[in-house]
Amino acid sequence: MKAREGRRKASRTAAPFYDVIIVGGGPAGSALAWDLARRGVTPLLLDRARFPREKVCGDYIEPRGLRIIQKMGCLDCLQADSPLPISQSATFVNAECAYQGKIPFYGLRNDMPPHGYIIPREKLDSVLFETAAKAGAVTLPETTVTGVTVGKRAMIVEASRGKDSTTYKGRIVVGADGVNSLVARSTDLLVSDPRYTAVSQRGYAEGVDGDVGEAVFYFERDLFPGYGWMFPMRGGIVNIGVGVLAEASRRCALNIPHLFADFVQKLKRTHPRCRKLRLCRPPIGGIVKTYGGSGPNYFSRGVLIGDAGSFVDPMTGEGITPAMESGILAASIIMTALSLGRFNANLFSAYERSFRAYFDPSMIFLDLCAATMRNRHFAEPWLKALAQGCAAAQKEPAFARTAGAYFGGLEINPALILSQVWFNMASELAFVLPKSIQAFFNKDADPLFPSIREMMSWHLSWWSSVFDDPVWHATWTLDLQRKWLKFISSTRGLPKDPRADGPFERN
Question: Which CATH number fits domain 194-289: 3.40.50.12780, 3.30.9.10, 1.25.40.10, 3.30.70.100?
Answer without folding.
Answer: 3.30.9.10
